[in-house]
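note to self: dont lose this again. the chain is below, predicted strucutre after it. 323 aa total, dont forget to put it in the shared folder this time
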Amino acid sequence: MSQEMEYRRLGRSGIKVSVLSFGSWVTFKNQVDVDKAVDCMAAAYDAGVNFFDNAEAYAGGESERIMGEAIRKLGWPRHSYLVSSKFFWGLHKGPNSRNTLNRKYLLEAVDASLERFGLDYLDLIYCHRADPDTPIEETVRALSDVIDRGKALYWGTSEWTADEIRAAWDVADRNGWHKPVTEQPQYNLFHRERVEKEYARLYEDIGLGTTIWSPLASGLLTGKYLDGIPDDSRGALEGYDWLHDKLTDGESNAKVRALKDVADELGVTLAQLSIAWCARNPDVSTVITGASRVEQVHDNMGALDALAKLTPDVAERIDTIFA
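---
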């Protein structure tokens, strides 16, 4: 009997997200067309996933377009799912359109994103990175205005420092503007510091939620790179050369081999165990999973069963491997 999907509040907000969610980074357009997107998203939704993550920068806006078209084809009622996008890198050349969080860019970018999705509003919008050149007041006010205008319901940050998040929250608090409710950081067995240490005070102090990405460390934690880089993997994609060294690192793969022994004993896959390990952290609101095939979606959703097997003893063994 498979475990049922769990839903967690996104930080201190009232919204609830499925503990496993579905994201389109890398896969949509590069590996997944509309038909495949329909199949993968349907499989995730049927498993109880209600949060679908995207960004303006993914495939230069095409990822949003594909996801929007897939949602229309699936005919889901709007109340049954949450969809997000992120803004910072920009799609157009020019000093006010790239690597910025100024008011002009943000208001225009949200409108363009809604058009690509074919939606009236986004549930969640993120600042994809921090912008040291724009006053934090300007950015927070613009995001609050986007929410007041009904174009988004909540906002958050992605890969901001704890200080930057706190500054944004304080500005919003002082002015009665909408506060950031979540952060989207990288989090996995190889990458723990920020989520577990840097943000530690923020969970209690401001009720920060987290929608974490890369639970499988770009696929390293699936074990598929233990014997080199397969031709059909992300590591072989054009433009992803920067991943090669990371994926073939001997020390890292030795840890993955040891983790595989634990996964085998529990009767789960490496991917399921690695995703479940992220979800075990109570400060993680949702773990964003990705897939280019329906089979991968089903496999990822098996992390719910792995989560039930992740006892304190097992967690301690895993900590020893990755210490």
